[in-house]
Structure formats: C-alpha cells, structure tokens
Amino acid sequence: MKKAPAVNEVAAIHGVITDQAPVDFHALGLAGCIDRLAAPLREQGTRVRWETPHHGIEIPAGSAGLLYHAAQEALSNAFKFAAATELTVRLAAVHHGIRLTVADNGTGFDRHDHHGNRPQGFGLLLMSIAVHEAGGTATIDTAPGKGTCVTVTLPLD
User: Fold this and answer.
1) How far is C-alpha 54 from the chain's CA centre?
2) Sheet strands (E) in 32-84
3) Is the CA virtual torsion 92, 34, 68, 60 positive or negative?
4) Which of 15, 27, 73, 78 has a Cα at 20 to 30 A from 87?
5) Using CA atoms, how far apart are residues 58 and 2, in angstroms rounded to an integer?
6) Burial level of 5, CB count in 10 A (0-12/13-18/19+)?
7) Which residues pair with 91 in a beta bridge?
8) CB under 8 Å to 82, separation ≥6 — which residues?
9) For residues 126 and 74, is the Cβ–Cβ distance under 8 A?
10) Are 114 and 81 in contact (CB under 8 A)?
C-alpha cells in the first residue's frame, strides 16, 4: 500500500488546520512542519511566501512545539476568517531568541470589538498566554481591512 504524501495529511476541519501525521521536527525542521500547515491555504488559492534567514540555529523541542502551535493558530485564522490572497511566514533569529511572524493581507479585525461583530474564540488568547508563560512575547497587529500579523518571539537561552 502506497503512503500518501505528507502534505495530504494536513486538513482543515471546521476551519482549524490540523496535521494528521506526527510532527517530526527532526526530519522536516520547524519550517518544514509549519509549511505543511499552509497546504489548505495554498489549495484555496492563497499565495504563501517564506522568509527563513535562521540557518543553523538549534531550536529546543519545547520552543519548536510552541512556535508550531502558534503558526497553526495564525494559519487556521487566516484560512477560516481572513479571505487573504497573500500570506508571509518568517522564521528568524533575533537577539538570544527566535521569532515567528505570520502576516496576511486579509480582512483583519477590530481587536477591541466585544459586541459580537466578529467571531470570538480563545485561540489567540491561549496562544499568547502559553508564549508569555514560556518567557516570550506575542503580538497581534490587525485592523479591519488591513490584514493581520501575528508575531511570536521566544528566548533561546
């Protein structure tokens, strides 16, 4: 029996991008694992651009897992809500750390709208809490009609 390519093991279920295969940072690297998550966006016509100037940096498994899940949340939101045509994923070394940025040119949203005018969820909030507990920072830069940029920075020391 022939095994399906790894990209086919990524699916969007109820708008949430899921990876049916075990995450293998050793074989694919963090960027490769995150890139697999972008498959549903590509399938709907979103152009996904990568910037990864982090060559040769050792990322501990815990940090890689947290960055992977942050990317999963940002990409799921872009897939489900943004109607983006372009998306940029950056993974770069910063002073004593690693930074993941997921930016889209989609619809954006008003972060201060608590009156039910946008879908409410806890994904970004829970992601931010997990990042802060790991000693990192998470920012969400967005506005209606201006797209969304999620940035997560984790320390590596």
Assistant:
1) 17
2) 47-51
3) negative
4) 27
5) 33
6) exposed
7) 100
8) 104, 106, 107, 108, 147, 148
9) no
10) no
Amino acid, single-letter form, for residue 44: Q
Alpha-carbon 11 to chain mean position: 15
How many residues are there in the chain? 157
- Alpha-carbon distance of 59 to 91, in angstroms, equals 11
What global pTM score does this model have?
Answer: 0.84
Task: In whole angstroms, give the CA distance from residue 39 to residue 36.
Answer: 6
Average pLDDT per block of 10 residues along the chain, 157 residues long: 51 71 80 91 94 78 94 93 95 93 94 61 89 96 95 93
Encoded tokens for 31: 């960027």
Structure tokens at 128: 């931010």
Beta 86-94 vs 47-51: how paired, if at all?
parallel
pLDDT score, position 13? 72
Give the pair of three-digit tokens for residue 42: 């590509």
